[in-house]
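Collaborator request, handled under Task 6.
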Amino acid sequence: MGLTHSFDLVHCSEIIEHLHNWEVERMMSEVARVLDVNGRFIAQTEPNKMYRWVSSIWSYRQRALQAKQEGSKVRFMIEPPPSHVLLHVNEQTYWSLKRLVRKYFQEYKVATYELALGMDDSLRRTYNAYPYNNLPLLRLFFNRELIAYSKRPRPKRPNYK
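Structure tokens returned to the collaborator:
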């Protein structure tokens, strides 16, 4: 099954959120199988599942004022577009991504970061969360991107029948 040689690096960018759990498990076991003993695995995924929830709360006041001016209703949660719901079947949180890489790798680090720093000023003022992006606990919620750095795949257990 599959390749018989190994790789020094496997990089997976913006893939995990589009795969169902069983597909992610299969992908991770295959990555661990083909990765060299000293190889590295990097996985980047977005959006952080907590980000939409927190940004909905954070921006509610601004959205309510705007809805009042427009004479429309405001929803508490920011609703993602239908295509987002169909395509993002497995959004991760910091903790779920950490659990996933811990299962397959001996050494790992999961971090959050914000790619949206290039947003226009009006959008940045609406969310106004940037002072919190680097605070230790709050950055797990306020940053949109998640990235996992892993190395040293866990040894395979014998498959006894």
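The cover message to the collaborator said: "The domain at 7-153 is CATH 3.40.50 (Rossmann fold). The chain has six helices and four strands. Please let us know whether this matches your experimental observations."
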